[in-house]
Amino acid sequence: MTRHDLPPRREMPPEVRDRLRRRLWSQLDVPARSPLSRVRAPIVAVVGAVAVLIAGTVVLAQNVSSSSNPMAAAAFGTANVASQGMSAELDRCSTTAAPAGDLLARPQWSFVTRFEADGVSVTAARVEGKPVFCEITATTVTVSDPFAEPGYAASSKTAAMFATSNGTVAGVVDTGWTEFELRVTAEPNRTETVTPRLSDGLFVARARTLIDPPKPGVQLYALHDGAEHKFSPVPPVLAFAGGLRN
Fold it and tell me: What are the transmembrane regions (predicted)?
C-alpha cells in the first residue's frame, strides 16, 4: 500500500449499526423546541397554579359566606323584632302621657333601657333630656312625671322619680355611684332589699312591696358604701291608663 492508497473498507458491525440507527430515529421523533417555548412552559405552569389557588379561595369564601348567612339573618331578625317591640312600648307610653301636655309627644322620646320581670316591663327614656319612666302590664300603663321634683336620697344626687303598686322604683343615680342597693321597709317589721339596674345615669328596681300610693310606714333607703340614705317622698305619677288604681 502506497502513501496515497486508502485503507481497505471495513464493514460496521451490525450491533453498532443498529445502535446508531436507534439513536438517530429517537432524536428525529422529538420535535425541536424553540427558546420561547422553553420560557413559556414555566410561565404557563405558574399561571395554572395561581388560577387553581384563586378558584379554591373563591369556593372557600362562598362556603363560609353561605354558612354564616343564616346566623347573620337570624341575628338581624332578632334585633329587628326587639326594636319593633321597644318602639311599640314607647308608643303606648307616649299615648298615655299625651293628654298631660305636648311636651311628651312621641318624637321627643329617646329610649335608654328596658327592664322586665313577672309580666311587668319598665322602659326608661328621656324627653327633652329629662328622665321619664313607663311601666306596662297586661292591663295598665303608668308614666312618671319628668318635670316633678324627685325624691332625693339624703346627702346624694340619687333620686327616686317613679314608684308603683307593682313594686317598681326608678329614678336618677348619683354620678359618683357605680352601684347601690335599694331597701324598702314596711310596718310591721317587713324589710326588702333589691339591687337596681343602672344604665346611662338612670336606675330601675323591682320590689315585691306595694309602694304607690304610699302606704303608712313604707320608706325607701339607698345603701351605698356602708351608708344609709333615706329618700324623700316620691312624686306622684303623671299618667295612668287601664285597670283600677289602688
Answer: 43-61
Residue 204 pairs with which residues in a beta bridge? 170, 197
Residue 151 belongs to what domain range? 13-246
Could you tell me which of 115, 55, 65, 69 has the C-alpha nearest to residue 89?
115
199 lies in a domain? yes
Flag whether 178 is in a domain.
Answer: yes
Domain contains 136: yes
The residue type of 126 is: R
φ and ψ at 93, to 5 degrees? Answer: -65, -45
Half-sphere exposure of 54 (CA within 13 A, CB side): 6
Cell readout for 46 is 405558574
Buried b (16+ CB within 10 A) or exposed e, 139-175: ebbbbbbbeeebbbbeebebbbbbbbbbbbbbbbbbe
Q: How far is the C-alpha of 208 from the C-alpha of 215, rounded, in Å?
A: 13
SS3 126: strand
Domain count, the chain: 1
Summarised one tens digit per residue, pLDDT across range 28-77 is 555 555 444 454 445 445 445 445 444 444 443 344 344 445 543 333 34
Q: How many residues does the chain have?
A: 246
- For 223-234, what is each residue's pLDDT tens digit? 999 999 999 999
Strands (E) across the chain are located at: 109-117, 120-127, 130-136, 141-143, 151-152, 159-163, 168-172, 181-186, 190-194, 197-199, 202-206, 219-224, 227-230, 239-241
Domain presence at residue 5: no
| Cis preceding-peptide flag for 236 (omega within 30 of 0) | no
